[in-house]
């Protein structure tokens, strides 16, 4: 029932173009999450490599549990697992090159090397069967797998239960979407392909509904299996179709052949595949570039290991949104002046530019909305206090792509405050869409100044021409 509910919700959100929620998850957070999840998955597979009983949902719990069981290590299992890891690593790193050097065509060598995981499975099944690893050496194997395909049925129509499960289903579906998209975006970047979040959300909804009516629980894109798939050379949706077909054939006809497959082999496949997803270099480069983004990525990485994958996803999403909101709360608004003799205007604190005590220009480098409107009001009030000769204030709106209702009220308040102080408010370089929206209000009727097409037009209309004779022949614009 939860799977069906989660699927319906994800389909509805996808049709409503809600896949943009992934825009709130920054690339550093995605990379940190993938790295943390890959390490967590690798740690979770160590129990199969050592052949011991262990469990836990976090890295600390798993390490503690594995450490407590090391004294019970099954040596044949350990040798088999380490051998499988070494074999897979060698095939992945040097298989294609070695076969090419032996005379095999380049394309053929690459295809044969990609069969390394399949070869590992076949070889270890044969070893397990002929040597009786499960009976003689207590090596854990897959064992009996129920044959046949699941029967399709609609879950209970108890609407009261659906209502009680709705919130849980929504959160499970949302976390599953962010989790799966994080892996998908990472692999897409490596294969130079593009992910469309809305389609992914709809597809995830269909998959969950299919899981629900076949007796399964909520699903999403698996990082470990995606890594195995990608490392084997899969690049298109055809790989998923072939996998599904082979799984159906296996479930119906080949389950007896899986009985002797050692769990250590499966663990080795996952460990080797996850190694390629670990990217500490990106975390370090992020920290060097931006301490805020680096701290967010590091917090996500630690949360995945300490609290588990689900909490790690939520921490990453919340921190990404919090930093975005924090940065837009205080928009970059700087006074600008003109390079002498040009039509270029730059930050007065960074360049040697012309300024005027009568005419000030404040360049706003952020869209204006309810969260930062008050900050801009305070900035203008401070400027008015510091400039007793101010007659004209120009808001240079080059980077303003949106002005919401709260910001509109703030602009009207600034206009009134300046008017009471004997100064006029002007706008320059306003985007056409922003101007169209302002026309729906009474803003232009109440504006004490003018709206100029360019900043230079505004300065030529409002400021006097400087006395060029008084200026040096050499102008240092740096």
Question: What would you note in describing this structure?
Answer:
The chain is built from 20 helices and 6 strands. The chain has 478 residues and is mainly α. It has a 6-stranded mixed beta sheet with strand order 2-1-3-4-5-6. β1 (333-338) and β2 (345-347) form a beta hairpin. α2 packs antiparallel against α13 and α4 (75-101) packs across α12 (263-275). The model has no long low-confidence stretch (mean pLDDT 88).
**What is Rg?**
31 Å
**Poorly predicted spans:** none
The shape, in one word, is elongated
Largest sheet: 6 strands, mixed
> How far apart, in Å, are the first and last alpha carbons?
67 Å
The helix-and-strand class reads mainly alpha
The helix content, as a percent range, equals 55-70%
Counted beta strands: 6
Beta percentage is 5-15%
**Secondary-structure element sequence?**
HHHHHHHHHHHHHHHEEEHEHEHHEH
Strand order of the largest sheet: 2-1-3-4-5-6
Rounded average pLDDT: 88
Seen as an oligomer or otherwise, the chain set is single chain
Jot down its keywords:
478 residues, mainly alpha, Transcription Regulator spoIIAA, six-stranded mixed beta sheet, 6 strands
Topology diagram in text:
Blueprint: H1 2-15, H2 27-50, H3 59-69, H4 75-101, H5 106-114, H6 116-131, H7 133-136, H8 159-190, H9 197-213, H10 223-231, H11 238-254, H12 263-275, H13 280-289, H14 291-307, H15 309-329, E1 333-338, E2 345-347, E3 359-364, H16 373-386, E4 392-396, H17 405-420, E5 424-428, H18 432-439, H19 443-446, E6 451-452, H20 455-462
Helix pairs in contact: 1-8, 1-9, 2-3, 2-8, 2-12, 2-13, 2-14, 2-15, 4-5, 4-6, 4-12, 8-10, 8-15, 10-12, 13-14, 14-15, 16-17
């Amino acid at each position: 029932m939860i799977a069906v509910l989660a699927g319906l919700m994800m389909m509805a959100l996808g049709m409503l173009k809600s896949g943009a929620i992934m825009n709130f998850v920054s690339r550093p957070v995605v990379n940190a999450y993938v790295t943390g999840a890959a390490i967590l998955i690798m740690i979770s597979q160590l129990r199969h490599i050592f052949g011991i009983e262990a469990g836990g949902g976090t890295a600390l719990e798993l390490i503690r549990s594995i450490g407590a069981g090391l004294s019970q290590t099954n040596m044949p299992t350990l040798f088999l697992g380490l051998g499988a890891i070494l074999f897979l690593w060698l095939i992945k790193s040097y298989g294609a090159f070695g076969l090419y050097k032996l005379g095999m065509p380049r394309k053929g060598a690459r295809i044969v090397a990609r069969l390394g995981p399949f070869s590992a499975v076949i070889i270890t099944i044969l070893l397990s069967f002929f040597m009786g690893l499960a009976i003689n050496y207590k090596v854990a194997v897959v064992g009996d797998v129920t044959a046949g395909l699941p029967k399709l049925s609609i879950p209970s129509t108890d609407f009261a239960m659906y209502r009680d499960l709705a919130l849980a289903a929504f959160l499970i579906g949302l976390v599953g979407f962010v989790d799966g998209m994080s892996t998908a975006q990472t692999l897409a970047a490596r294969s130079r392909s593009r992910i469309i979040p809305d389609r992914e959300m709809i597809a995830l909804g269909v998959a969950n509904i299919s899981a629900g009516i076949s007796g399964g629980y909520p699903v999403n894109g698996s990082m470990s299996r995606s890594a195995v798939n990608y490392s084997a050379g899969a690049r298109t949706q055809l790989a998923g179709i072939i996998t599904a077909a082979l799984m159906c054939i296996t479930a119906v006809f080949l389950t007896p052949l899986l009985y002797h497959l050692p769990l250590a082999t499966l663990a080795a496949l996952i460990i080797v595949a996850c190694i390629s997803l670990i990217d500490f270099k990106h975390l370090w480069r992020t920290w060097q570039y931006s301490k805020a983004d680096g701290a967010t990525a590091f917090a996500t990485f630690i949360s995945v290991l300490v609290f588990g994958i689900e909490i790690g996803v939520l921490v990453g999403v919340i921190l990404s949104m919090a930093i975005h909101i924090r940065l837009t709360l205080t928009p970059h608004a700087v006074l600008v002046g003109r390079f002498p003799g040009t039509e270029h205007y730059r930050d007065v604190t960074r360049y040697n530019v012309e300024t005027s005590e009568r005419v000030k220009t404040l360049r706003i480098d952020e869209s204006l909305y309810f969260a930062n409107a008050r900050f801009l009001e305070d900035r203008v009030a401070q400027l008015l206090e510091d400039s007793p000769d101010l007659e004209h204030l120009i808001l240079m709106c080059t980077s303003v792509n949106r002005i919401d209702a709260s910001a509109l009220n703030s602009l009207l308040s600034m206009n009134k405050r300046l008017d009471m102080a004997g100064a006029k408010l002007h706008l320059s370089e306003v985007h056409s869409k922003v101007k169209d929206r302002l026309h729906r209000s009474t803003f232009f009727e109440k504006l004490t100044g003018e709206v100029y097409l360019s900043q230079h037009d505004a300065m030529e209309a409002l400021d006097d021409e400087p006395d060029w004779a008084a200026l040096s022949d050499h102008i240092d614009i740096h």
